[in-house]
Amino acid sequence: MEIPMIDLSELGGENRSKTLAILHHACEKWGCFKNHGVDPEPMKKVKRFVNTHYEENLKATFYSNIEDFLNLSNDSGAVMDEYIAQVIKLVKKLSGLICENLGLDKDHIERAFSGRNRPSMGMKVAKYPECPYTKRLWGLWEHINAGGIIVMLQDDRVSGLEFLHEGQWVPILRSNYASICVNTGDQIEVVTNRQYKSVLHHVMAEKNGCWLSVATFYNPMDDAIILPATKLLYPGKYAFGDYSHAATKFQGKELRLESMRKLMSNGCSGAA
């Protein structure tokens, strides 16, 4: 079992509808996916830079915010700036595609996350040391991300990240330079009225090498007010008379609820 793979380069051609359907399935059933079709060079450069910087400056540290990377040379700063610009472009594209799949305005998530300012972007880098006690220790305990969209650039030599899917832990296999992992957090689940899900994940301890991750977080601002998109409220507001007459009691609730959704979409419910 492997998590879904999205090829963003297919969006501009005849496979656009198929690609959007794969993205919808990944967000709805998995809460995570791998994607390629983005420029591999910035990813290659930033992995090399972070590995070198950790060995020289942060070897005793488990993880660090990008702001802790002090005294960067102009070349190193340019490497990070190039990668961050690519990630910002990616998350804006993904948030727009998520909105498109759900029938929302293309910028709905961006506006929902904005508060007084634009959505928050943050980055953490981590290097998990190799560990001989893989049966007794975790690299990072299982958790769900509280934020919005998380873009994970991970090691191409050592694997460690796993996502929970239908009761089974699914590993993210070693990544080549052209593939990154994306998962959705709690705020996407809320905005989409739980149509899309946040997902439990953890990092396994690894005895055959250190595992590198560079995680970028596209989150709401602290003052953003988060609520489900009105279009996605279901069944929403309706008159009980409409509901009770939508079907017989022997036909079950699903037919009634579907009838309410149709009434709401047509603006015909008798609810005040």
Descriptive report:
By secondary structure, the chain is an alpha+beta fold. It folds into 2 domains: 5-219, Jelly Rolls (Sandwich); 234-266. It is 33% helix and 22% strand. The protein is built from 7 helices and 11 strands. It has helices spanning 16-30, 40-57, 74-101, 108-112, 186-191, 240-244, 253-266; strands at 5-7, 32-36, 63-65, 120-128, 138-143, 149-154, 161-165, 168-171, 180-184, 201-204, 211-219. It has a 7-stranded mixed beta sheet with strand order 1-2-9-6-11-4-3. A 4-stranded antiparallel beta sheet has the order 5-10-7-8, with no helix packed on it. A hairpin with a 2-residue loop joins strand 7 and strand 8 (168-171). Helix 2 crosses helix 3 (74-101). The longest helix is centred in the first third of the chain and has 28 residues, at 74-101. It starts with a strand and ends in a 6-residue tail after the last helix. This is Fe2OG dioxygenase domain-containing protein. It comes from Eucalyptus grandis (Flooded gum). Residues 3-53 form the Non-haem dioxygenase N-terminal domain.
